[in-house]
Write a structure and sequence with these properties.
Blueprint (H helix, E strand, L loop, with lengths): L12 E3 L9 E2 L12 E6 L2 E3 L1 E3 L3 E7 L2 E8 L2 E7 L2 H9 L3 H35 L3 E5 L6 E5 L4
Antiparallel strand pairs: 1-2, 3-6, 4-5, 6-7, 7-8, 9-10
């Protein structure tokens, strides 16, 4: 729960997490790492304003001709490819820092939710196949490779 008196951006005075009566502090800036040959286009540190998002730091980076969204949060670093890089970068340029941050936050959470839903669906598929004893394996001759598949239900 964020108890900042007003919306704050990481690195500026005013952060008070779960301490409404304490003196305001500064939430440290902790950006995701950028590799050699990658160019930072936008750097948006965590912030609050409506919701607490101090733990998420976003960077839009040009990497080998495409735009990537780099994210650092409490669970580590993630990289997400942004399709149609030119249009996305132009759209981000039209926004102010807060608008850009919250749009990147929405993109990240949409992708994260879709990935989680896909994992849940695939796990249920394999669980059902195991329950029905429809999982098959075959070891390749002369190697250590094993082919694994699910047979269609009758």
């Amino acid at each position: 729960m964020c108890c900042c008196g007003k919306p704050t951006i990481n690195g500026e005075l005013g952060f008070r997490w779960n301490r409404p009566n304490a003196e305001p502090g500064i939430y440290p800036v902790n950006p995701p790492a950028v590799g050699e040959g990658e160019t930072i286009l936008y750097d948006e540190p965590g912030r609050c304003g409506g919701i607490d998002s101090h733990s998420h730091h976003y960077r839009v980076v040009r990497s080998r001709g495409t735009a990537m969204l780099f994210v650092r949060h409490g669970g580590g670093d993630e990289r997400i490819r942004l399709s149609n890089a030119t249009a996305v970068v132009n759209a981000l340029a039209a926004l102010d820092s807060n608008g850009r941050y919250w749009l990147l936050n929405a993109i990240y959470h949409a992708q994260n939710d879709a990935a989680r839903d896909a994992r849940v669906k695939e796990r249920a598929r394999w669980y059902s196949a195991a329950q029905d004893k429809r999982i098959r394996t075959r070891k390749e001759r002369g190697g250590s490779y094993v082919k694994v598949w699910i047979e269609n239900a009758a």
